[in-house]
Specification:
Structural class: mainly alpha
Shape: globular
Helix content: over 70%
Radius of gyration: 20 Å
Oligomer: single chain
Length: 230
């Protein structure tokens, strides 16, 4: 029966999704070379032949997993990204700059979401995949960077540029933005150390509330050295 047969399609979609979700974890744990097709199929609980059937082979699954990961992350920030894109478009048409106060509000929302995501169990396998790609970039990194990382970093640059009253394309703002994002990434890349230092066992409602306040503080101190307070 054809792969696009409407009777078989729901089952096919489920098999494909199982492979994509399992692939993020397996590739993150073992890398491309260590992630055998047998490991990938077993982790997904599907037949070995499903990999070439749906993705043409391991390499196709690898790239598809990267795109799927970008989509999963995007699902947590897409609504905010659309609002920001529309707001920037309005300001560009009017040849106006975003105020520092408005930029701080948007940046706080962005950082809060990132922190909530980074301390979640869900992001563990995502982080392993991305960190491997940071160390040894492949085409998978280009897919993740182009679809989610670059757009979010560039939006953060524009917001931080508005807060500091500087050109968001300047090297200084690029560096400030990367350092700022790094202070949030630590909650995932150094997850064990963070929880050990804070003496947290889990990220429950109390801990998430603390992180929300911390996100607001991180934004509030931007520009403090210039006396630019919110």
């Amino acid at each position: 029966m054809a792969k696009n047969d409407p009777i078989m399609q729901p089952r096919g979609d489920a098999t494909r999704d199982k492979l994509l979700n399992a692939a993020i974890d397996v590739f993150g744990r073992y890398g491309f070379d260590g992630a055998t097709t047998r490991k990938l199929a077993d982790a997904a609980g599907v037949n070995l032949q499903a990999i070439p059937y749906y993705f043409g082979g391991k390499e196709g699954l690898f790239i598809a997993a990267a795109e799927h990961l970008a989509s999963l992350i995007g699902g947590h920030v897409d609504d905010l990204r659309v609002v920001l894109q529309n707001r920037f478009a309005e300001l560009d048409v009017e040849s106006r700059q975003m105020t520092s106060a408005e930029a701080r509000g948007f940046l706080t929302q962005m950082i809060e979401r990132m922190m909530m995501l980074f301390v979640s169990k869900q992001s563990e396998s995502w982080a392993r995949f991305i960190i491997r790609e940071q160390m040894e970039p492949t085409e998978a990194f280009q897919r993740i960077y182009g679809k989610i990382m670059r757009p979010m970093i560039e939006m953060a640059r524009r917001l931080i540029g508005a807060i500091l009253g500087e050109n968001p394309a300047s090297e200084h703002i690029r560096l400030r933005t990367l350092s700022f994002i790094g202070s949030v990434l630590v909650f995932r890349t150094a997850h064990a150390a963070v929880f050990a230092q804070l003496e947290w066992k889990t990220a429950g409602p109390r801990e998430l509330e603390i992180l929300q306040r911390h996100a607001a503080e991180l934004v509030a101190v931007l520009g403090a050295e210039k006396g630019d307070r919110p």
